[in-house]
């Protein structure tokens, strides 16, 4: 069977993975994650849709990630740096070594592409 060469980011019929921040990273709230991983290549590239309910937790990136916010509002604060409000329509990249805090103010959904 030939592998498709054009893939839409359509999550209908895909069961999401559910999760939450590790307890030692949680700052406040009870954020719950849902992830629809649509593409995985060689264990080093991932693409899909991620969603989180409100809450606040520490983040530390070893990977490179492109994000495009589809809905909701979050504030991403870099350790010892600027706090950035992101909402529907915003796109950004988090590079390896980024450390800080992700706070979901309104349930946030994003497209992502991750490269390890």
TrEMBL record:
Domain of life: Bacteria
Listed SUPFAM superfamilies: RmlC-like cupins
Chain ranges of the (S)-ureidoglycine aminohydrolase cupin domain: 40-112
Matches recorded under InterPro entries: RmlC-like_jellyroll (IPR014710), RmlC_Cupin_sf (IPR011051), UGlyAH_Cupin_dom (IPR008579)
Protein name, UniProt field: Cupin domain-containing protein
Native source organism of the sequence: Aquamicrobium segne
Lineage: Bacteria, Pseudomonadati, Pseudomonadota, Alphaproteobacteria, Hyphomicrobiales
